[in-house]
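Retry 2 of 3 after timeout on previous attempt. Resubmitting structure tokens to design endpoint.
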């Protein structure tokens, strides 16, 4: 759950209130929590240890300036250090520098070799990169598949390459990967391609033959970029895979795929640390345009589960319905649970606001990534569907969503005319919102209410 770490952090921030300085003892409480949370997010132990040591050093030397409490200052340090660890900053760097896109500084064709396990998203990413290079960098791009074990993979690359508007070089399962590579390279040279993207075979687990083969490909192709494609949902396994590929190949960059999923993205931290290669891109959907230049700052917020929730709620409640905003604030204040009725109120207020788009960038990265994809009318339709689902629930269910088990879910789904998955999604979203509400108790919302005289 994305909010686990920030729940803990905000508790510690509270506990540290009234303490004027960051000291050896108050910092270690907090760092214990950070450590646990990172381990839960599947970050490798040595990486966690290093990280904690660096944060501690920075925190103890830090000036707690202005109105910041030591707790808040620490959260800031943890956040910045996370971004720096995942970003392009060198060992001395304190802020994350954005990573340069792809290096194409080679005698054309610049070769980009894709490495990773089967299912990591290599083929999809190859096509996404082709499109990126065509659209953003105006390059002439050729793709080729060296996956001679799965004819379907060659066909898949052909299809997605066409979608990307690039050219595809045919290969067959009868050929040797190194021969395919030579032929494609030759074709690319003769036809003046700027870039050759080489997709490779991945196995379900690391094996020596696979590694030998990709090393051979690397020797034949002399790529300017060797990208390690890794599934962000892979967790601890990602670490072993990263180790194996780093030992086999001089990796120049990482593509972290499936960041549109629910994982906290802790893999980014360890894969970056273990390979030493910068994370260049993030895959954020199955679609051809679902590729973003990796943003370490934003990803750090995701790992921490923070976003400008307070600002979001302020905006939602500001102009609209003061009565229900006050009711909500009172609930938060009294510690009474935020339930599905309140969630429904919020949905309705959002709908009334109309301007959904500027709310989106106030959400935590993970939620915003989901929301950002949708166009606004879809977002509005989505709200109506959610309203429909909550309206199909009994009052008892809305007050105590935990009683909604399989049978109730089926009834609610039927009532609202949606699939059970959609009910599940709504319940999950509600849980996230509830988590945020808990965090705000006595925080931003109350301040906002005071400012408005509420
Ligand atoms: P390969 O075996 O490494 O070539 O992996 P594929 O490119 O075939 O991808 C495996 C599966 O992951 C496919 O169903 C892709 O659509 C999906 N996939 C790849 N990248 C992403 C991503 O960024 N987000 C999502 N949601 N799915 C992805």
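Retry 2 succeeded. Sequence:
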């Amino acid at each position: 759950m994305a909010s686990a770490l920030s729940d803990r952090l905000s508790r510690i921030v509270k506990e540290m209130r009234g303490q004027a300085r960051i000291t050896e003892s108050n910092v270690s409480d907090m760092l214990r929590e950070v450590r646990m949370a990172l381990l839960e997010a599947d970050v490798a132990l040595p990486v966690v240890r290093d990280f904690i040591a660096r944060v501690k050093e920075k925190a103890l030397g830090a000036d707690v300036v202005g109105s910041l409490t030591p707790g808040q200052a620490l959260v800031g340090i943890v956040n910045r250090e996370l971004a720096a660890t995942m970003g392009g900053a060198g060992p001395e760097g304190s802020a994350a520098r954005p990573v340069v896109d792809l290096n194409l500084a080679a005698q054309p064709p610049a070769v980009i070799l894709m490495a990773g396990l089967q299912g990591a998203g290599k083929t999809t990413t190859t096509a996404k990169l082709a499109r990126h290079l065509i659209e953003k960098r105006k390059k002439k791009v050729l793709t080729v598949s060296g996956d001679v074990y799965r004819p379907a993979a060659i066909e898949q690359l052909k299809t997605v390459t066409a979608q990307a508007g690039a050219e595809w070089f045919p290969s067959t399962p009868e050929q040797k990967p190194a021969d395919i590579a030579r032929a494609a390279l030759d074709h690319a040279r003769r036809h003046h391609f700027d870039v050759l993207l080489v997709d490779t075979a991945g196995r379900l687990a690391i094996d020596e033959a696979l590694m030998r083969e990709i090393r051979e490909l690397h020797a034949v192709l002399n790529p300017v970029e060797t990208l390690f494609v890794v599934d962000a949902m892979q967790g601890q396994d990602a670490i072993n895979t990263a180790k194996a590929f780093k030992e086999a190949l001089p990796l120049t960059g990482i593509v972290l795929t499936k960041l549109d999923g629910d994982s906290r993205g802790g893999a980014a931290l360890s894969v970056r640390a273990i390979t030493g290669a910068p994370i260049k891109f993030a895959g954020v959907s199955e679609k051809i345009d679902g590729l973003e230049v990796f943003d370490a700052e934003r990803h750090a917020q995701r790992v921490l589960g923070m976003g400008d929730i307070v600002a979001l709620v302020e905006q939602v409640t500001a102009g609209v319905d003061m009565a229900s905003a006050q009711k909500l604030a009172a609930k938060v204040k009294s510690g009474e649970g935020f339930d599905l009725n309140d969630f429904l109120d919020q949905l309705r207020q959002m709908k009334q606001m109309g301007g959904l788009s500027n709310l989106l960038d106030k959400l935590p990265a993970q939620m915003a990534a989901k929301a950002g994809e949708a166009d606004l009318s879809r977002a509005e339709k989505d709200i109506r569907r959610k309203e429909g689902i909550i309206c199909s629930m009994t009052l008892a269910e809305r007050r105590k969503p935990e009683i909604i088990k399989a049978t109730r879910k089926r009834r609610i789904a039927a009532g609202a005319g949606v699939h059970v998955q959609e009910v599940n999604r709504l319940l999950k979203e509600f849980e996230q919102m509830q988590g945020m509400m808990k965090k705000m108790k006595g925080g931003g919302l109350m301040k906002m209410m005071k400012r408005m005289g509420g």
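Attempt log closed. The mean pLDDT is 78.
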